[in-house]
């Protein structure tokens, strides 16, 4: 079945909850057993006791299934804190992100999917809409409130600030060329803040 001939996936609110959870569980188990490239929709359907037709009505492909499994499993762990002190909030949030992506099975799955998304346009679009854009929206709101409190300069491009904070994290997760421990995260946050904080906050 080609992407061109698939119907638009059915939203989660209209799916059978039992079958829905069975498919997500089967996809995670098969990913952990075989990896992304070797897992198939046939295997997911067989393991979940669901039909391929049902799966294709609900998801665009195996990447979309795994992405939903990841998002539903980590959402609570990655809530952005808002204590009123930007540095502490950023260190806490980046640390939580590193813990999830670097030290959990769901996180390792997400990193693998991120690599696959570089040559799978459908998966890349799902990653942007389901993961990247919502998180950047929350991040912008946090930075905007810090600007209103006088912690950050008012002339900043917040999109570039977010890239400066999170780009190094994803780079190190993908290539593993340097540590992502607490001291590294604190150094990253402090160096970014040195460039964007108001003079009295530096």
TrEMBL record:
DNA-binding region ranges: 40-59
Record keywords, A-Z: DNA-binding, Transcription, Transcription regulation
HTH tetR-type domain sequence ranges: 17-77
Signal sequence bounds: none
InterPro entries: Homeodomain-like_sf, HTH-type_TetR-like_transc_reg, HTH_TetR, Tet_transcr_reg_TetR-rel_C_sf, TetR_C
Top-level taxon: Bacteria
GO molecular function, one term: transcription cis-regulatory region binding
Keyword S-adenosyl-L-methionine in annotation: no
Record bears the keyword rRNA processing: no
Name of this protein: AcrR family transcriptional regulator
């Amino acid at each position: 079945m080609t992407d061109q001939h698939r119907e638009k996936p059915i939203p989660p609110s209209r799916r059978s909850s039992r079958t829905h959870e069975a498919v997500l569980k089967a996809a995670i188990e098969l990913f952990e057993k075989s990896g992304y490239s070797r897992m198939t929709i046939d295997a997911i359907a067989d393991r979940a006791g669901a039909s391929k037709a049902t799966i294709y009505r609900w998801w665009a492909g195996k990447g979309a299934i795994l992405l939903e499994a990841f998002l539903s499993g980590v959402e609570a762990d990655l809530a952005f804190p808002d204590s009123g002190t930007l540095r502490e909030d950023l260190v806490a949030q980046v640390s939580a992100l590193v813990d999830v992506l670097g030290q959990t099975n769901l996180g390792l799955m997400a990193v693998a999917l991120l690599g696959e998304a570089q040559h799978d346009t459908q998966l890349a679009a799902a990653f942007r809409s389901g993961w990247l854009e919502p998180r950047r929206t929350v991040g912008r709101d946090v930075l905007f409130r810090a600007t209103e409190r006088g912690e950050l300069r008012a002339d900043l491009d917040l999109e570039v600030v977010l890239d400066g904070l999170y780009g190094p994290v994803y780079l190190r997760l993908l290539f593993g060329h340097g540590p992502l421990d607490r001291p590294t995260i604190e150094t990253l946050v402090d160096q970014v803040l040195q460039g964007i904080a108001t003079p009295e906050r530096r």
